[in-house]
Specification:
The structure holds two protein chains of two kinds. Chain A is α/β, with parallel strands linked by helices. Chain A has 14 helices and ten strands. In chain A, the strands form two sheets. Chain A has an eight-stranded mixed β-sheet, with helices on both faces. Chain B has a domain at 1-33. In chain B, strand 2 (67-71) and strand 3 (76-80) form a beta hairpin. Classes of the chains: A alpha/beta, B mainly alpha. The A-B interface holds A 26, 31, 34-35, 38, 71-73, 79-80, 82-83, 93-94, 96-101, 233, 235-237, 241, 246-248, 250-251, 255, 259-260, 301, 303-304, 335-338, 340-342 and B 48-65, 81, 83-88.
Chain lengths: 362, 174
């Protein structure tokens, strides 16, 4: 990391005595000013019972914490996600803005393809079933519910995570947003969060398998029980990228590694696969789930264009093994248009069409 | 007091959002509703989030949620970074852009120009009122202090003209 020029520090100090502290983490004067404003607003909001002196001390403490690299969202305690307000605590990954954009895109796709007027034709008596794997704060299920519930009379969204802390926080977020009036009361029954390990799907006794038990499609063509949508933002950073400085210091020090890097020890059975990379570990398992459950729409967040292309290929290979799923359309969607920013892999399965597997790139 | 309340409840949109009930249900006569905001076609605008190269996503935790909106036909670019929320910033940027485009298309007839003009008039009227009030006060003060002076004239100047404080004076008159 390049040094901050003294000139910039002096300039920041002249603006506000606290700015040089924030500059250490923000690196630019502009973003430091914005963060100072948000921190100040927060300090003034919590002062209610205390004296102005207290809010000044609080602001200073928060700036010092920020200068050590503690994420702003952990200091302020929340992060806006769409129209929702997601509580953030240590031990659970902070929702990213790219994930927000992908969630909006997924909601648009669901409305286009699966809603009644979109021609997708979901049975009236059957709820739309969505499963979010590696849910973390629960931001994706909650935002999807807020976007989709006006259009679907029945909807069930399940968020799955391996971390019990995350599951607790996700439930808390559900209640919090209903209380704040940002989510309809339906969310309390429609959205639920369960503990499960995506990597243990093959194990029939695992908790995750129980979640899918009622979703699993019987071999007959009655696909009414199928899960309609799977969306996931799994850990996708390679152990190398985690160490070599690509991953920022603040993320490494304060956000859970569990949510960022796939476990190296679980990847041994896949080492024989061609082009296997540890950071793609979760996608192999998710692709297996998609193939088994005949999921109609899958949205997977990936770290970069390169990874998205790899994931698209591996999903195609896995889906092609079964004739029922070989008609899937796989495409890649960019969030910002920059190759090193997240991409989404979209897999659409039309249940009647049994043509050859197509790869499409947008 | 009443006028003040009524003004509060009819003029500012933020006050309208509050669950307060206004005293009168009829609108202020002088408050003609502003023309509706120009609706921009989604096809005409490009929205871009978080510019910049380098890694993104899980690898870094950006707090910068700037949203940039470009109106393609006119080439106007608007950027908003006011809040931490990306969707909120997008709304703000869209609104600003709509105002700017309208201003370009309609000039003085646009909503923003009308609003500014209305604000200017209000300010001018306030300034005028306050000038008038202080002028009257000044005149009254002149008359009364003159009378007082006359009364005490015989006994000689005890307190001098500066004795009654300006502030006290205003309160008394009211």
């Amino acid at each position: 990391m390049p040094r901050i020029p003294t000139r910039l520090i002096v300039e920041a100090y002249q603006h506000d005595a606290l700015l040089p502290l924030l500059l250490r983490e923000c690196r630019t004067l502009d973003s430091a000013k914005h963060e100072l404003r948000w921190l100040r607003e927060h300090a003034l909001r919590v002062k209610s019972e205390a004296t102005p002196h207290f809010s000044r001390t609080l602001l200073r403490t928060m700036c010092v914490a920020r200068s050590k690299g503690i994420p702003l969202q952990y200091i302020l305690g929340d992060q806006p996600f769409g129209d929702l307000d997601i509580k953030c605590t240590r031990g659970v990954l902070i929702p990213r803005q790219e994930t927000e954009t992908i969630t909006y895109h997924a909601a648009k796709l669901i409305l286009d393809k699966l809603s009644k007027d979109g021609g997708g034709g979901i049975d009236k008596n059957r709820p739309l079933r969505i499963i979010d794997l590696c849910t973390g704060t629960g931001c994706i299920p909650l935002l999807l519910h807020s976007l989709l519930s006006p259009h679907f009379p029945k909807i069930t969204i399940t968020g799955i995570d391996i971390s019990t802390v995350a599951i607790g926080l996700a439930r808390e977020n559900r209640e919090r947003n209903v209380r704040l009036g940002l989510l309809s009361k339906r969310a309390l029954t429609d959205v639920n969060f369960q503990h499960g390990n995506v990597l243990e799907y093959a194990d029939h006794t695992s908790a995750l398998n129980k979640v899918f038990q009622d979703v699993r499609v019987p071999p007959s063509p009655h696909l009414d029980l199928g899960c309609d949508v799977i969306i996931s933002n799994p850990p996708y950073i390679s152990p190398q990228d985690y160490r070599n400085g690509t991953t920022s210091r603040s993320v490494r020090m304060f956000e859970p590694k569990l949510a960022l890097v796939p476990p190296e020890e679980s990847s041994t059975p896949l080492l024989g696969e061609r082009n296997f990379q540890i950071e793609d570990l979760f996608y192999y398992h998710i692709a297996a789930i998609i193939a088994k459950c005949m999921v109609r729409l899958t949205v997977l967040e990936c770290g970069s264009r390169l990874q998205a292309m790899r994931v698209a290929t591996l999903c195609r290979n896995i889906l092609q093994k079964r004739s029922e799923t070989s008609g899937a359309t796989i495409s890649v969607w960019s969030v910002t248009g920059v190759d090193t920013h997240p991409y989404a892999v979209l897999i659409q399965m039309s249940l009647n069409n049994k043509g050859p597997c197509q790869g499409q790139q947008r | 007091m009443l006028r003040h309340l009524r003004r509060l409840s009819t003029c500012t949109p933020s006050a309208q959002l509050l669950p307060k009930r206004s005293l009168s249900t009829s609108q202020f006569l002088s408050e003609k509703a502003l023309p509706p905001r120009l609706k921009l076609l989604d096809a005409d605008i490009t929205i871009s989030y978080l510019k910049g190269t380098g890694p993104g996503g899980q690898k870094i935790n950006k707090t910068n949620s700037a949203v940039q909106v470009i109106h393609k036909p006119t080439g106007i670019v608007v950027k908003s970074q006011a809040t931490r929320s990306q969707s909120q910033n997008e709304k703000i940027a869209r609104q600003l852009l709509a105002d700017k485009v309208e201003q370009l298309l309609k000039g003085d007839e646009s909503r923003a120009a009308l609003k500014a003009e209305r604000e200017r008039k209000k300010k001018a009227s306030r300034a005028k009122k306050s000038r008038r009030k202080y002028r009257e006060l000044e005149e009254k003060k002149g008359v009364e202090s003159g009378g007082w002076k006359g009364e005490v004239d015989g006994e000689g100047l005890r307190g001098g003209e500066g004795k009654p404080q300006d502030g006290d004076y205003v309160v008394e008159v009211k």
